[in-house]
Write a structure and sequence with these properties.
Elements: H1 2-12, E1 14-20, H2 27-40, E2 46-50, H3 63-81, E3 95-103, E4 108-115, H4 136-144, E5 150-156, E6 160-161, E7 165-166, H5 168-189, E8 197-203, H6 205-208, H7 215-218, H8 222-232, H9 234-241, E9 250-254, E10 260-261, E11 264-265, H10 270-292, H11 307-316
Parallel strand pairs: 1-4, 1-5, 5-8, 8-9
Antiparallel strand pairs: 2-3, 3-4, 6-7, 10-11
């Protein structure tokens, strides 16, 4: 089925967005926040629809996956808009949430977001090799899809162990899970991995910052992000840095889907809401550029450093 999906994606010009991360890393919340942005932000300048036409029509094997995609696109994302974080994904198999993003000029682009249980990426210390293999659906797609994809390694600033809550053990499991996913991706994708865009993403970034009103929250220094990654994701971050990829195809950033207390999403003031919205806006722009080679939002493009910026950068060192 993964090979069949790869053929459909190739034929329809779909850009897959592959999210890898352990249980509780925030993969589903990240997808829900991207859907929310396109739905309720006037400055999104685009609309979004569930692209059911990408599923093979009339094929009963895809019925469950269509239902799971609908559940994310409608139920979970609307719960997110109502300030309720989505429950942990528990579907039996990985699946894609296919969407069509349409700009005001009528031009549209297909994306497909990979969803699935974080347990599939958790290390299994009772096995001879603790790293888990990708599910067959994912393997088939990665081995057969010959066009570029975007790969997101989801690394939460805090990670929960199911028995202890947020803990060092939770972070260790998340780190090991990503270490295994990076290695497995390279094994399965092989020579085609060089054409994909890879992004190591620190989620739950608000927990790292004293306030979302700080400069660190919205525009962190590269050193701040690197320090967090080196301290909390030592194994997977080191492996990521050593991937044989060009700097253009390998980057890192931060992400905040919303300020959460358990499954409750706080209702921020208008200004704070605009600050949080910058994260999905920047990620949408990156995904759009990866898919089309064109800019979606000019205002989030990195500005060219002037002489004063360069001097200040040298002084910070």
């Amino acid at each position: 089925m993964g090979k069949e999906m790869a053929a459909v994606f190739k034929d329809k010009g779909v850009h897959p967005v592959l999210l890898f991360g352990s249980r509780g890393s925030g993969k589903t919340s990240l997808i829900a926040s991207l859907l929310k942005y396109m739905r309720d932000r006037p400055d999104a300048d685009a609309s979004i629809d569930l692209a059911e036409e990408l599923f093979p029509e009339g094929d009963p094997r895809w019925t469950k996956r269509i239902g799971w995609a609908r559940d994310v696109f409608y139920k979970k994302s609307f719960e997110f808009i109502d300030r309720q974080a989505p429950a942990t994904t528990q579907e039996a198999q990985p699946f894609f949430v296919p969407v069509r993003v349409t700009r005001k000029n009528g031009a549209y682009t297909y994306f497909a977001f990979l969803e699935g249980k974080g347990e599939w990426y958790m290390p299994d210390y009772e096995a001879d090799v603790p790293f888990q293999r990708f599910r067959g659906f994912i393997q088939g797609l990665l081995q057969s899809f010959s066009s570029p994809a975007t790969v997101l390694y989801v690394a939460p600033f805090v990670s929960e162990d199911k028995d202890e809550g947020p803990s060092a053990k939770g972070l260790q499991l998340s780190d090991m899970g990503l270490l295994g996913a990076i290695g497995e991706y390279g094994t399965v994708r092989k020579a085609m991995s060089h054409q994909d865009r890879h992004l190591f993403l620190v989620t739950k970034w608000d927990v790292c910052c004293d306030s979302i009103a700080t400069e660190k929250f919205l525009e962190p220094e590269e050193e701040d992000i690197q320090t967090v990654l080196a301290e909390r994701y030592q194994l997977s971050w080191t492996k990521y840095l050593n991937l044989p990829l060009s700097t253009e195809n390998k980057s890192y950033s931060t992400y905040c889907a919303g300020v959460m207390d358990g499954r409750t999403i706080s209702a921020p003031a208008s200004e704070d809401s605009d600050r949080i919205a910058q994260f999905p806006r920047k990620l949408w722009d990156a995904l759009y550029q990866n898919a089309t080679g064109r800019v979606l939002y000019e205002d989030v493009q990195p500005r060219e450093l002037g002489w004063l910026d360069k001097l200040l950068g040298l002084l910070r060192r």
